[in-house]
Amino acid sequence: MFSRLPEPQSSPPAPFYEKVKQAISEKIAAGVWRAHDRIPSEAELVAQFGFSRMTINRALRELTDEGLLVRLQGVGTFVAEPKGQSALFEIRSIADEIAARNHRHRCEVLVLEETQASTEQAVALNVQEGARIYHSVMVHFESDVPVQIEDRCVNAISVPDYLDQDYTQTTPHAWLSLVAPLTEGEHIVEAVRATPRECEILRIKEHDPCLLIRRRTWSASQIVSHATLLFPGDRYRLQGHFMS
What we know:
Strand content: 25-35%
CATH superfamily of the largest domain: Chorismate lyase-like
Number of strands: 10
Structural class: alpha+beta
Shape: elongated
CATH class of the largest domain: Alpha Beta
CATH architecture of the largest domain: 3-Layer(aba) Sandwich
CATH topology of the largest domain: Chorismate lyase
């Protein structure tokens, strides 16, 4: 239960909805309320805080917009399943991101091959069409839930040992960072609809929204790899931080 916080009338009101947001967020962060737990109703929160229903509604609405809560009409308000956050302006290994959330990462390798660059792959890697490249397709899991399909083509001249690695023990990003230290990266983000095969792999429905990142990385002045990273929209969100 929350302690009752009276609304002062003699001074300009503080943003009471922020107090409600903070109290709810702290309970979730402390594990008092866990994912899928139902939180008190608006009426119950009004009684507990002593604030207006409009104030409580705004707090719940903003927490829902921020992805902390899920509101089901006629059912109630619940703690949302935590979404992973992928770095938008920095390039990190998905395994590191998952480990930072104290979850288990695993990878299934679907394709690991040497091939000839298609027109699209040649443009992405800045090589001649038909040039020898490496191609991999992998599925990354967070606690046995598929969260990303990684489709990557790699410059075979830059990293000749790419096919020899065990990507169930490391990730392409981690290994490439060791052998061809990254000096530049490019992200292009799109909202897309997954193909039927991708829906099957990610265990999502045909019309579920997805996020697609097209990522190119350089070492010195040479493009090392180009990857398309597909995320289910309801399991992942992108977060960026930058300074001018």
